[in-house]
């Protein structure tokens, strides 16, 4: 399955913000609550929830509310989108570099 431009764009947009990258880095250590995410960032729980909304919309994070606590975790979908996009571009550039190598070999 090919990564669509809009999916890739949403993931890059989400990761373009340093606060969201910090949230993703924290969630890489394991699930935590929204208030735990807010504490080291020195921003409000509301602001963290807004950032989480962006991360959820592109598949980088998932949240679940249990009682009064919203628990967040990393989600794989956004990373799979990036992996596909990188793979598509890597193949294209490797092919171009191989052709360049052949041209350079011919000149020698």
Question: Your description of this structure?
Answer:
This protein has helices at residues 5-15, 18-27, 34-41, 45-57, 77-107; strands at 32-33, 61-66, 69-74. A three-stranded antiparallel beta sheet has the order 1-3-2. It is built from five helices and three strands, in the order ααβααββα. The model has no long low-confidence stretch (mean pLDDT 90). The chain starts with a helix and ends with a helix. It has 108 residues and is of the alpha+beta class. It has a single domain (5-107), classed as Arc Repressor Mutant, subunit A (Orthogonal Bundle).
Q: What's the CATH topology label? A: Arc Repressor Mutant, subunit A
Helix-strand pattern, N to C? Answer: HHEHHEEH
Gap from first CA to last CA: 41 Å
The fourth-level CATH homologous superfamily is Winged helix-like DNA-binding domain superfamily/Winged helix DNA-binding domain
Can you tell me the residue ranges where pLDDT is under 50 for at least 5 consecutive residues? none
The main sheet comes to: 3 strands, antiparallel
According to DSSP, the number of beta strands is: 3
Q: What is the rounded Rg?
A: 19 Å
Strand content: 5-15%
Instruction: Give the number of domains.
Output: 1
CATH architecture label name: Orthogonal Bundle
Oligomerization state: single chain
Describe the structure concisely for a colleague.
With 108 residues, the chain is α+β, with helices and mostly antiparallel strands. Helix content is 68%, strand content 13%.
